[in-house]
Amino acid sequence: MSLGTVGLWLYRNGGGERIQRQIVEMLKERNIACVTGLDLKHAQVKNGKIICNDTAMDDLDAFLSYNAGEQTPYQRYLYQMVSQVTPTINNFDSFAIAEDKFQTSHLLTLHGVRTPDYRLCGRDDEDGLKQALNDFGGRMIYKPIDGWGGSGIVKIEGHESLKTVLPFISQTDLRYFYLEKFVNYDNTDFRVDIVDGKFVGCYGRKAPRGEWKTNITSGGSVFVREPDQEVIELAVKAAKILGLEVAGVDIIYDREREEYVVLEVNTIPAFATPEQEKLGINFNSYKIDALVDLLERTVHYKAREQTIKVA
Ligand SMILES: Nc1ncnc2c1ncn2[C@@H]1O[C@H](COP(=O)(O)OP(=O)(O)O)[C@@H](O)[C@H]1O
Ligand SMILES: [Mg+2]
Fold first, then answer.
1. Which of 35, 39, 177, 227 is a plausible cystine mate for 231, CB 3.0–4.6 Å?
2. Any idea which architecture 185-267 has in CATH?
């Protein structure tokens, strides 16, 4: 008999399918069963159970939610519920904070982790926007708090540019604006992957020539990059503050302040794709090992908890 069952929902593109096979295989060797494809979009709630493809989510010993595809509000709502009943990686509360750029920056700053200077302004606070631009030395970025892939991010340079952007942002139905000082950096970053409090891998990303956004979806390219100890420690600390079991911490070097700053913390950082592995980005096996260890420990913990309850 297996020691327990882990539910998985992993992305399948970019080599995800193979990663999933490896995780399933390794868990099987440790006598842990897996149910894959648990996309909560298809789940139904009836008679006190959340049922997804015939699996009762509440009966799982652990659930790994690892699919960066956009979640429907329904799906997200169920993720929150599942996370309260079944040990879920990432746990929903930390996931929700990390998905929000303002909450992330604020929490990190409160706990002594450096981020770019940031502001939050009410939607009608035109003066606040102007003030921020002055305080930030004339260059700032407007970011959707829950954006990804670099989309929706607008650079505002000087008051003329603010005037042009204002009608556009005030047309949105947002209630507040999140702003960051535009950091003077070399247009490269570190993506540092942390699993279970441990450093498992790093690579660099570089913005296309003449551009400043490093996202792959904005045309950025990846390269092999060894982080120094300071970068690793910053990433470990950021993941810990947010309470994330799995994190991909984006770090850049601020040339003005002469220090590293955390830009954001991703909750579903991609494994290296087969093409990236060919470039020498080879952290997948460390990351899989750390994830499998974490899942195994979670299953054992849950089993012990149940034994205690019965006793
Ligand atoms: N404050 C900033 N100063 C300079 N560049 C930035 C700043 N914030 C973000 N960027 C650039 O924009 C990219 C996308 O920003 P990020 O906050 O990571 O949002 P997303 O979730 O869309 O990836 C970053 O990878 C970085 O290259
Ligand atoms: Mg990013």
1. 227
2. 2-Layer Sandwich (3.30)
Could you tell me the distance, in angstroms and rounded to a whole number, from the CA of residue 78 to the centre of ligand 2? Answer: 26
Residue 224 reports pLDDT greater than 80: yes
Ligand 1 pocket, residue 149 CB under 6 Å: yes
pLDDT at residue number 141: 96
180 lines ligand 1 (CB under 6 A): yes
pTM above 0.90, yes or no: yes
Query: Which CATH topology does 4-90+288-310 take?
Result: Rossmann fold (3.40.50)
Q: Residue 165 Cα, ligand 2 centroid: separation in angstroms?
A: 22
Q: Which residue's C-alpha comes closest to atom 11 of ligand 1?
A: 213
Pocket lining: 140 vs ligand 1, CB cutoff 6 Å: no
Q: Which residues contact 81 (CB under 8 A, 6 or more apart)?
A: 50
What is the DSSP track for 161-215?
HHHHHHHHHHTS--SEEEEEEPP---SEEEEEEEETTEEEEEEEEEPPTT-----
Dump pLDDT digits (tens) for 255-294.
999 999 999 999 999 999 999 999 999 999 999 999 999 9
For domain 117-181, the question of CATH label 3.40.50.10490 is answered with no
